Amino acid sequence: MSGEQTRKFVVLAAIWLALIFAPYWIVPLGGYTALATRVLVLGLAAMSLNFLLGFTGVLSFGHAAYFGLGAYGTGLALKFMTGSTPLSLVMGMLLGGVAGGLLGALIVRRRGVYFAMVTIAFGQVFYYIAFQWSSLTGGDDGLRGFSRQPLDFGFFQIDILSNTNYFYYFVLACFALAVAAMGIILRSPFGRGMIAIRENERRARFLGVPIERHIWIAFTLSCFFIALAGGLYALVNNFADPKGLHYSQSGDFVMMAVMGGMRTFWGPLLGAVVFVVLQDYLSSVTINWMSFVGMLFVLVVLFFPRGLLGFIRRKREA
Amino acid sequence: MTQLLLFNITNGLIIGAFYVLMALGLSLILNLSNVINFAHGGFLVLGGYIAYTITPYVGFWGGLLIAPPLTALIGLTVERILIRPLYGRDPLYSLLLTFGLAFIIEDGTRFIWGAQGKPVTVPAFLAKPLSIDFFFITGYRLFMVAVVAVTVTLLFAFLRYTRIGVRIRAGTLDLETVSALGINVRALRSLNFAAGIFLAGLSGVLAAGQLGLEPTMGTGLLMPSFIAIIVGGVGSLTGTLLGGLLIGVASGLTAVFFPAASEAVIYVMMAVVLLIRPRGLLGEEGMMST
């Protein structure tokens, strides 16, 4: 292995080891396992958004809609259809992903700030549906009356309901699957095409990359991933909230991705760590915590446009 | 029924006029600088609160006249310090910056003026309904529409007949050429931004008289303005005008027949417009896809 490869391997191993042992080191540091679970879920959401933003270069400001659809899909499936947690997650993923695919076909012809504007507006449609259709969704109060079920393998069960550590590992397994899928897609010729679009759309078009179809597929995939994150989020709290579909939630994901570093694969996870820890700490100190996050975000945009991870990487290369 | 229908149509038109004012400011900034100003709602709230603060000293009319320029001044400062460094970069960055800025402004107003809503009183002769049958048309609402009409006329005249206005319109089409012709594009952008924020401040003062003041009121008013722009067509101010009125009336009418959807209907309208005529009603071809 060359030096660069060894370094990459060490970093990857460090990330995964930190994630695997999180329940053991987070408690002595003053955290709690559920905090680590939340970081993972929101980190997956931010990475899904960044799959589109960082690697195709188009910013969706309405991804919370598909996150929320994943949450409601999973919650409703658990409540009315099935007692299987994984199956309900699949249902949530399908709901969010298919909705994203359908709307994506309308959205992909826009570019730049107009793409952001149209995604945000479409996202709000789902917010209002969840808000108004109280008989199904519980309206403003959110969807209640379901809870994650123990994993049943026939001959033994894993109780992810009452054991928070087991649940953490369940979430970590889902996270690992999704992240591995994203990594493989980005390494494939399709993923190279995405990056080509980001770097120079016109050149990619001349080279024969079908731009609209490519962006549409990337958008749809990203919606599937974020719907999975949404489904997991519903399982964390045994609750789905209409606010999870609102564009301010999309904004949170965008902030995580940008603060962590949107041109990097792992940056959004780091952004989610910063965001969740800040939120947890600041909101116990001041009610104006969002303005501190906002200020940090403005500073990052002005002075570290590549985010924390991009900044670290740049430092090392310099 | 007729009265109910009339009530909601008028209501819709009045709300629509209000969206127009806000959306025109957004549209000005979007067209020339390619910045989606997420903090526009924040500036609206600032305008309202500034008027609220100075009204005891200068009266309602003084507040109406002084608050919008003051808001524009704040907007100008923000543009100089925060947004100008980003013009050279991907337009997404300025969108992100204003998104963060919106949080700061919202919490700032909460910090200065408190989280509790503030009631705003308008002059007594404006608060009265005009007649018993049409109880819903208060003098203030007519006044609001009149202010919007006058402002919009002035804005269009400014853009059509003054040198700076023509430059702003030219810059919307091709900023590079305008710059090559020796026009100071930085100053033009600053001025245009300030003009957009002026409109936000004015909307804030008007909204305060109708709805009262709350630090969060800007967020709810921002989305309809976005939709007014998309429906009307990006790049066309006349389109924004039309779009704002249309979505106002549409949500007013829906409130009669299907109240639960009165907020969602504008999004449905937008989807229909994007399906049938992607560039918006009066939008320029290709404007949305670059």
How would you sum up this structure, described in words?
The complex is a heterodimer of chains A (318) and B (290). In chain A, helix 8 crosses helix 9. The longest helix of chain A is centred in the C-terminal third of the chain and has 27 residues. Chain A has 15 helices and two strands. Chain A is globular. A two-stranded antiparallel ribbon of chain A has the order 1-2. The mean pLDDT of chain A is 87. Chain A has 318 residues and is mostly helical. In chain A, strand 1 and strand 2 form a beta hairpin. Chain B has one domain. Classes of the chains: A mainly alpha (318), B mainly alpha (290).
Summary?
Chain A is mainly alpha-helical and 318 residues long.
- Note poorly predicted spans of chain B: none
Number of helices of chain B: 11
Name the shape of chain B in a single word.
globular
Helix-strand sequence of chain A: HHHHHHHEEHHHHHHHH
Helix- and strand-based class of chain B?
A: mainly alpha
The overall pLDDT of chain B, averaged over residues, is: 85
Rounded Rg of chain B:
19 Å
Fraction of residues in H or I helices of chain A: over 70%
- Number of strand segments of chain B: 0
Strand order of the largest sheet of chain A: 1-2
Mean pLDDT of chain A: 87
Shape estimate of chain A: globular
Strand content of chain B: under 5%
Distance between the first and last residues' Cα of chain B: 47 Å
- What is the count of distinct domains of chain B? 1
Largest sheet of chain A: 2 strands, antiparallel
Total strands of chain A: 2
Classify the helix fraction of chain B into a percent range: over 70%
- Greatest interface and its participating residue counts: A-B, 37 and 47 residues
Question: Could you describe the largest sheet of chain B, including whether it forms a barrel?
Answer: none
